[in-house]
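User: Can you write out an input/output pair for a complex, sequences first and structure second?

Assistant: Here is one pair. Inputs:
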Amino acid sequence: MKAIGTTGKSIHDFIEFELKKPELKAHDILVKVDGVSVNPVDTKIRNGLKNDLVEPKVLGWDGIGTVVEIGEAVTLFQVGDYVFWAGDVTRSGSNSEFQAVDERIVALAPKNLTAAEAVAMPLTSLTAYELLFEKLEITDNMNGKSILIINGAGGVGSVATQMAKNAGLTVIATASNQRAIDWVTHFGADFTVNHHQDLVEQVRGLGFEFVDYILILNAVLQHIAASCELIAPQGRIANIVEPGEAINLDKLAHKSASFSFEWMFTKSAFMTTDLQSQHEILTKISQWLDCGALKTTLTENLGAVSTDNIRKAHEMIEQGRTIGKIVLCQ
Amino acid sequence: MKAIGTTGKSIHDFIEFELKKPELKAHDILVKVDGVSVNPVDTKIRNGLKNDLVEPKVLGWDGIGTVVEIGEAVTLFQVGDYVFWAGDVTRSGSNSEFQAVDERIVALAPKNLTAAEAVAMPLTSLTAYELLFEKLEITDNMNGKSILIINGAGGVGSVATQMAKNAGLTVIATASNQRAIDWVTHFGADFTVNHHQDLVEQVRGLGFEFVDYILILNAVLQHIAASCELIAPQGRIANIVEPGEAINLDKLAHKSASFSFEWMFTKSAFMTTDLQSQHEILTKISQWLDCGALKTTLTENLGAVSTDNIRKAHEMIEQGRTIGKIVLCQ
C-alpha cells in the first residue's frame, strides 16, 4: 500500500513509499483512510526523530475511513462501517492508504458532517473530554462554576470551550488577537482575556477572585504562577504540556487544590484497563457532532494526503498561530 | 476562663493566662474542654509567631468535651452532648477551659473509647479521610489496587493505613525502624519499605512496577522523584506538605497522573460551601472508632493541659521521631 512517512526531523524529509499492509491483531480493524488531520503531536514527534531512518516514520493521529477487514476478536464494528479515530502514538499513523487500529479506540463517524469536518475532531475532542470529565471531573450541571481555558482558540481549547459551556460552566477563554477572540466567542466563551498580559489582573478585573477550574493548554511555565494564584480553594488545574523543568505549586497547598496531567495517548500506550472508554467517549462526541451540540473546529482543508500537503500543514502548525484544525481530505 | 497560650516562638514562651470567654457566632457551640492532642501544626504555627505577643496565641487543634452553650443557628448539637473536633486554624485553639467551635466541623465523640483515645483522632483522621476519599477518590472496594504511604507510622499515616486496608487496598507503608515497622504492621500494612533507602528499588523489589496511589506525608522534596516514577498510568499522588520550592513532575505527563494537595483546614479557612462535610466525615470516624473499624493511634497521654505538658509535647514532636499521637487529657 502507499504511505507517506518521514526519514528524519526536517520538514523536507517527507516521502511517499510502499509499505506492507499491516497484519491485524485480534482487536484491530483495518480501515481504508479517506482523510487525516494534523496536530501539534505530529510536529513534536517529527522533531524528536533521528535522521536517515531506513523505515520512514508514518505520522498522522486522526483518521476517517471505511472498515475493510476485522481482527478475530472484533465485536464493535463490521466491514463497511464508516469510522473515525485518533489512534495510538506507539503504532504507525494515519498518513497511509490503510491503517490498522484497535477497535476499542474507534467510533462510528458522525453522519451529518463531511469527512473533512469530522476528521478534524477525534484527537482534540478526546483530549478535551478527558481533561474536563476525567481530570477536572466536571458533571453535566455546573451552573455557577467557572473555568479559565488558557489558549482557548487552539485545537483542544476550541472543543473544551464548547463542552464546558454545554455543561453550564462560565467560560473565560484566553485569546490574544481579534480573530482568536471572535473564534472562542463563536464557540461560547463568556469572557476573553489575553494570555500575553497579566492573567490574574484581567480575571480579577472581570469580577472573579478565583475560578473553580483551569485548563493549561500551552506554555505551562509561563502560566503556572497565575494559575496557582487564580484557582479556587479545592479547585482543579489540568494541563496537557510537559513542563520540562520544575514548577512551583506552593500556592495550591493551603487551598487543597490539584494539578493533573492529561495525555490522550496514555490509555493506548499503557493498554490501561479502561482503554475502551475512548470508544465510548468518541461515540458520544460523534453523537454530539451529529446533533449540533458540538461544532467542528475545522478551519483549513488542504486537500489530498500528499507529501506537499503534509509538509504545508507542518509548517502552519510550527508557525504557532493556527486557529482550529487543519485537515487533509479530498 | 483559664487558657494556655504562647507569647512567642520559643518553647519556653507558654503561659497560663486569663482569657475572655468567647462570644458565640450563630453556628458556634461552646465546649468545656476535657482534653486535647498535639500535632505538627502546633509546632509549625508556634515557629511562625512573632515574639513578645501582647495577646498570647492559644494553640491546640484537637479537642474533646461537653457542649455547654449553643449559638442561635445551631441544629446539630444540644447542651450536654459529648463531642470532639479538630477545629479551625484561623481561630483560637483548644488549649483553654472553653472553646467556641463551628458546629459544622464537630461530631459526637465515640462512646466506646476513653477521652484520651478519642481526642488523638480528629485532625489526623479528617486529613487521612480527605486524602483518600476526596483527593485520591478511593471507594469502599479497591481490591487489586495498591497504595504507597510515605511516613506510614506518623499520625496521619497510621490512620490512612487503616482506612486504606478497610477499603481493600494493598498497603505499602514506609517505616524506618523496627518500632515503626511493628506499628504500621499492627495497623494492617501489607508491606513496609524504608524511606531512608531507595523507594523505587524497594517497591519494585516487592513486585510492584507501579502503585495506583501514593500519599506523601512528609519530606516531599526527598520523595517526589520516586513518587513520580512509581505512580501508575492515570494514578494519583496526594501530599500534605508545602514543598517550599519548585518540584519536577515531568514523569507524570505521559502517565496522565495527578498531584493533589490536602490541608484539612482549607474548608474552615475559606468557609467553603462543603464545610459541613467535616461534621459528616468526623461522625463516620466516630462510628468507625466505636465499632473497631478504626483503632486509636494514641501512644502517649501526658496528663493535664498545663504549660509544662504542652511544652513537653512540643519538644517530642520537634524531635521528629514520634509514632502515633500525643494527647493531654486528665
